[in-house]
Design goal:
This protein is an alpha/beta fold and 304 residues long. Helices cover 25% and strands 27% of the residues. The longest helix has 31 residues.
Length: 304
């Protein structure tokens, strides 16, 4: 039985993967998006924050942006397989294709692809904590939930997420709030908005069971310890990486031929939704150029 073939299989349906698929489609290629969840848009689906950083999207939050992404991909009739993961993966050199098994619940199917793009994004670092009603890990809707009023809150971490989410929690008028950071890495505009006495910089000790920081109890611990890359192919192929992030060249090619990595899974200088989408475009154009060079002799023969 001949397997269904795609020019490119994109693993991950966030802004990076969807941007790549959109450009591939308009460049005349046939992409397939493989998404492990039931919707497109990636982490934007869990973002209640306004997209003031995205040109033209100033008045919509992440969740609204994700809905628009999904609407556009559906309108373009780009094939997507939801609730699906890669369960087997190998390269067939004599055919120059990847043979990929896709699993959805208890059923599986196989497809082939000339190229593969990893766009599986990141997950929030737990830092040894377990999520609960009073220990919140990473940014998202649990920060938007009205629960902090007249409560005591400790935010752990020194990056942008820690300082930005301080502002969201402040709006709920907590009884007290304090950021604990071993080092401050956040951008200056975020840091300047912290009220005097609500930032501790240096070594601090946390008792997870009693929810205390430096001996002081808090109603909530908000853990903002950054991110780790999610590599859906780590069990099948070894890609050069650094601290869980896939290393790529300027074309977003990985260490393995015909496999690309895009978005926040890579060591981007400025990881965000906009740079992730740009990565998708860069990879799509490079794949199109390579495929066109492979197909030129065939096209020329048909014209003679």
């Amino acid at each position: 039985m001949k397997l269904k073939h795609y020019d490119v299989v994109i693993i991950g349906g966030g802004p990076a993967g969807c941007s790549c698929a959109l450009w591939l489609k308009h460049l005349g290629l046939k992409p397939l998006i493989v998404e492990r969840s039931e919707c497109l848009g990636g982490l934007q689906n869990f973002s209640p924050y306004p997209n003031v950083w995205i040109l033209g999207r100033n008045y919509s939050n992440g969740k609204a942006f994700a809905r628009e992404v999904s609407k556009q991909i559906t309108g373009e009739k780009i094939e997507v397989r939801f609730n699906t993961e890669t369960s087997d993966f190998k390269y067939v050199p004599e055919k120059k294709v990847f043979d990929i098994e896709l699993k959805k619940m208890k059923t599986s199917s196989r497809v082939t692809a000339s190229y593969v793009v990893l766009a599986t994004g990141v997950v929030a670092n737990k830092g040894g904590f377990e999520s609960s009603s009073n220990i919140l890990i990473g940014p998202g809707p649990h920060i938007e939930k009205p629960q902090f009023r007249n409560r005591t809150v400790a935010i752990l971490g020194g990056g942008d997420n820690a300082f930005e989410n301080y502002q969201f929690i402040q709006k709920q008028r907590p009884k007290s709030i304090k950021i604990f950071a071993r080092h401050v890495r956040a951008q200056l505009p975020f840091v300047t908005k912290i009220k005097k006495g609500e930032l501790f910089v240096g070594t601090y000790n946390v008792d997870k069971e009693n929810r205390t920081v430096n001996g002081k109890p808090f109603d909530f611990l908000v853990v903002m310890y950054g991110w780790s890359g999610v590599n859906a192919l780590e069990n099948f192929v070894t890609l050069k990486s650094e601290n869980s992030y896939i290393l790529t060249d300027s074309h977003r090619r990985t260490s393995e031929n015909r496999i690309y990595a895009i978005g926040e899974l890579t060591l981007s200088a400025h990881p965000c939704c906009v740079t992730a989408m740009a990565d998708g475009i860069i990879a799509a154009k490079d794949i199109q150029t390579r495929m066109d060079s492979e197909r030129v002799p065939e096209v020329v023969r048909r014209k003679i």
